[in-house]
Amino acid sequence: MKNYLRGLKAGIPIGLGYLSVSFTFGIAAISYGLNWWQAILVSMTTVTSAGQFAGIGMMAEPGLYWQMLISQITINIRYSFMSISIGQKADEKFKGIYRWLLGFFMTDEIFAVASQEESVKRSFFLGLSTIPYIGWSLGTAIGALLGNILPARIMSALALAIYGMFIAIVVPEMKKAKPVILAVVLAFGFSSMFYYIPLLKKVSSGLSISICAIAAALICAVLFPVSEEDDNSDKSSNLDKESKNDKEVVTNE
Amino acid sequence: MNNLQFFAYLLVLAGSTNLIRVIPFVAIKEKINNKYVRSFLYYIPYAVLTAMTLPAAFYATRSIVSALVGIVVAIILAYKNKSLTVVAIFACLAVYITELFI
User: Which of B52, B95, B56 is nearest to B73 (CA)?
Assistant: First the structure.
């Protein structure tokens, strides 16, 4: 229960950020010709941003099943790496059916917060997923049913919530481990290329994120492999000072 | 679009998205010992988050100026090890306040 509540609290900023993104998704879904309940169903069963936006674009036309499958795989391939990464840290109770059920909540943001744990407990992961899932579904519903009720000013400000959270995860680690600075510089450099070079701009954002991240992480792993003690010791974040106390299931060989 | 077509699409969309994240989670149970693979998995979150944030965050708000102010506020607070919620809320506030003046 303690872990569930700790996760619940950690999920608040994600939920806030999701509210604004999924609100936009709800509006977009209606404009592509989906019903309000269809929009909500897509969000509740899929829980992914880039993939859903690409998906509703294709739904508007008939018979694009293969194209949809291929585009979803390329956009979402990054989740595979996230799942492997979290799987390495999941505690011994977090297996079997729980992985089948909770793997469903592996989004970029939930992954980002979970990756800061030394040992990912299933109750923490469930708590962490709760508010973002509600926020994602609720935001879609509000966007689909009510359209533009929130003033543009508020929407604009909320749009930075997710990025603020990402910055709060990355910056402290850059202070602690210098090679992470290189990972950040490389990832920024690669993603800028996909953002500004006309030919590369055509690559979907989900796929380009995967490419940039994999390239940056590969280069850093080869140049600065993490030694065992760095990896296991004090990797706690600003998120949970108290989790330092329960180190019993840290990954020792 | 009719309901049959919708549900067929939904099956492809939700099915592929979820299998892609659940299968590696379920299938890879063993501890990975390879130093380079472990290092890759250590760097991947920071690389993913950076690629998602920059440069996209510059254009997330109504003006690049307010976005920059929000990002700088977030970096300063993050540097001081403030919690994720605090950083996120102050970044949003910074955007809101900046947009009142521009």
Answer: B95
Which among B35, B56, B88 is the nearest to A161, CB-wise?
Answer: B88
Asked whether the beta carbons of A65 and B9 are under 8 A apart, the reply is: yes
Q: 3-class SS at A90? A: strand
Which residues, listed in sequence order, are joined to residue A120 by a DSSP beta bridge?
A90
Alpha-carbon distance A74 to A189, whole Å? Answer: 21
Distance from CA of A219 to the nearest CA of B (A): 9
pTM recorded for the entire structure: 0.73
Give the max Cα distance, chain A.
Answer: 55
| Alpha-carbon gap, residue A135 to A14, rounded angstroms | 8
What is the number of other CB atoms lying within 10 angstroms of the CB of residue B1?
15
Give residue-wise pLDDT tens across range B37-71.
Answer: 889 888 887 888 898 888 989 998 999 999 999 99
Give the other-Cβ count within 10 Å of A98's Cβ: 17
Count of all residues that appear for chain A in the document: 253
User: How far from the centroid of its chain's Cα atoms is residue A4's Cα?
Assistant: 19
pLDDT in tens, A232-242: 434 444 344 33
**ipTM of predicted assembly, 2 dp:** 0.87
B26-30: list long-range contacts, CB under 8 Å, 24+ apart: B26/A96, B26/A99, B26/A100, B26/A103, B28/A84, B28/A87, B28/A88, B29/A87, B29/A95
Q: Which of B20, B22, B55 sits opposite A195 (nearest CB)?
A: B55
Q: Could you tell me which residues are beta bridge partners of residue A90?
A: A120
By residue count, chain B amounts to 102
Q: Give the side-chain half-sphere CA count within 13 A for B93.
A: 9
Q: Tell me how far apart the alpha carbons of residues A57 and A32 are, in angstroms, rounded to a whole number.
A: 7
Distance linking the first and last C-alpha atoms of chain A: 29
Distance of alpha carbon A246 from alpha carbon A55, whole angstroms: 42
Q: Verify whether the Cβ–Cβ distance B9 to A68 is below 8 Å.
A: yes
